[in-house]
Specification:
Structural class: mainly alpha
Distance between the termini: 37 Å
Number of helices: 20
Shape: globular
Helix content: 55-70%
Low-confidence stretches: 362-404
Number of strands: 2
Strand order of the largest sheet: 1-2
Order of helices and strands: HHEEHHHHHHHHHHHHHHHHHH
Largest sheet: 2 strands, antiparallel
Radius of gyration: 21 Å
Amino acid sequence: MLVLSLAALTTLFLVTRIPLGDTLVYRAEGQAVVNGTSLYDFVTTEWKLPATYPPFAAILFVPTTWLPVTAMKVCFFVGNLALLALLVRLSWRFAKLPKRPELMTAAIAFAIWLEPVFQTFVFGQINLALACLVLWDLTRPKGALGKGVGLGIAAGIKLTPAIFIVYLLVTGRVRNGLTALASFAATVLFGILVLPSASLDFWTRRMFETERVGKVWIVDNQSLQGMLARAMNSMEPGLVWFGCAVVVGLAGLWIARRAVRAGMEEWSIVIVAVTMVLVSPISWSHHWVWCVPLLALLLAERRFRTAVAVAFLFTCRSFWAVPHQGDLDVQLPWWQQPGLSPYPMVGLALLGWMVWRLRDGAAADGTSLPGGGTGVGASVGGPVRGSMPEPRKQQTPSESRTER
């Protein structure tokens, strides 16, 4: 099954000559570092894409300049395949699923076609790398040396994972949180030392320019702001979005804190990940690769019907099917909104579901959580550390973020 899935994916890429546009941006960033040219004033590719990541990320992209473009694209393609396998493995272990290689192999074969994962391949993105880094670091043993460093590095590459640093602090893992914060600060300092001018430009101006990333209202943006813009038929939801983002952000962290106290640390991590992509001003659909550990947790709790529904939602690509050329994204009627914003809707539903499960409180030993079903640990043969208490994630890549 995995061989057939890989063969289909490879054939599709070869036949359609998918350009991996973001990979070309990474290469241009690395080239700017090598040449000593301005990092945030250039645009590249036929779609005129700019650099949007911190200077530390651009430094890490320097090795992309050492290979011919075609070889670099092949490396990104193969690398993302390996990272997907790693993410499935981490999610499998994270959810305490049975160690059955044939099931894990089937999961990898299926995960390729989850829309967020597939789009990560299409753009040549780094979402899988960041998710693996964050999930690996957060699930290391409590006293592991340097726990938090990986999380800080992920935040230094792309700012959004920094919400996990706040998560560690508010859930009492102060030492790990401070380690992650120090690691993040080190990436910023390294960027300043190597690229002082670019660092000043980014941290004082560019990081606030959402329009550099893309239009907030197009269907590619599966964040809370994108959903509100389309639902309000407005290109700038402004204060409405900001107020909602603050509420959702605080609620997500509060729910995660409650979940940790209830012995549901696995769910707390997924809750924070979902909160991260919801409150980010722009979360392209491929940012939702966290649907992989979400599905693993649902399967571990034997919530098969819910898992099938969620898998279908992250596979059906409904927002690509709705007519949205030009500015049609903000002119569609209310009844089409669920198809336009499926990911933020399922994200909000997940937050609400967790509030319901925690509504009566839960004992730290996992004996009184409401909601039905079995815990993660119980579903694989007994209690384990951090297990769930027993309850009572087609348009062409060029069109999606550019003038259409």
